[in-house]
Design a protein that fits this description.
The complex is a heterodimer of chains A (150) and B (265). Chain A has 150 residues and is an alpha+beta fold. Chain A is 39% helix and 13% strand. The mean pLDDT of chain A is 97. In chain B, strand 12 (180-189) and strand 13 form a beta hairpin. The mean pLDDT of chain B is 96. The chains are: A alpha+beta (150), B alpha+beta (265).
Amino acid sequence: MPETFSCNGVEHALAAAADRLLIDVLRDDLHLTGTKLGCGTGDCGACTVLLDGAPVNSCLVHAVECAGSSVETIEAVAASPRGRRIVDALVAHGAVQCGICTPGIVVAAAALLERTPQPGRVEIEVALAGNLCRCTGYLPIVAAVEAAAE
Amino acid sequence: MRYHRPETLAEALELLGDGAIPLAGGTDVVPLRRSGAIAPDALIDIKRLPELSGIAGGSLGAAATFDAIAAGDDVPDAVRDGARVVGAWQTRVRATVGGNVCRSSPAGDALCGLLVHDAELELASRAGSRRVPVREFFTGPGQNVRRADELLVRVSFARPSGGSAYERFTYRRWMDLAVVGVAARVAVEDGRCVDAAVAIGGVAPTPILVAEAGAALVAGEPEAAADALVAAAAPIDDVRGTRAHRLRILRVLAGRVIAEAFERA
């Protein structure tokens, strides 16, 4: 029986070589290019996806480790009601400039609001500490997530 | 490169050896491999082995993630404090206490907490298993007594009593490595400190349990405890700070952590 993993609700066969990273399978094989490669070392969070509901850096996960697991990328998260609220709030608060960090931020923020529906400012900062942004200075991002939570 | 996901501990131990290394959260292994610092022939995924799982009654499975440890009941405070500050949320969902121990960085955030709680490490191999006190495990930066054919299975605590705390000094609030770290545990009876342990990280080739500091706290001499910590530290000048800076930080940080441990006792 070939191993599979679920991505955005769809089962896929895991035929990847042992050392292929999840981010590369998502972007190159499944053509889900919303997830971005930033640093490749797990420091910037641009590649954040949900693995069994929890945010992980997909540049640090081998695809084969995901057998039997469920992955959700920005494509699915942004299409959900909560994700749409977060995206709209980010745009309304001027929290999207170049946009490269935004998919990772939306995924992490969605995971936060799932766990903590009404997070305070500090909780938001802690939850998003793994998502670096070079453009906005973070303040509009935190304000947007706070607004999206209400 | 090959990837294996053994379903039993025995299977995993058959596979381990030179060139075939354990893969837990991958937060160290993947970047190390990417930079060429390590070049394993095979990754043995040990995350789902039942013997390495779970957090219960003074024992952590080696594959317990920092996210789970930070949220878990029955985890000593100094260890929980360390679990909370590793990397960021994405790191903590994957990174494990076993990985932190076996990576053996002198700045590892779980390690000082394990030292002050006198943790014991269960190492299994095809030849059987042995228990190594964590204070005997680290031999140098990134070095320890684990053989290539051994797997860290569980971390257990001999002395869960008392109040404890861990704090570190970093330049960034999050997503940084400790420049200096201190953990302290104190047990108090009738207002007197009857047992204490202090460990320091980031200021020597390994994290160190400083026996003289614990003894000084029991003797009611907190200044002598701080002096003992500074005397035991052997920091170097490196990209994260000078020797002098680390020693200054160490004294201040130790005072704060010891006070916090007493508060929690």
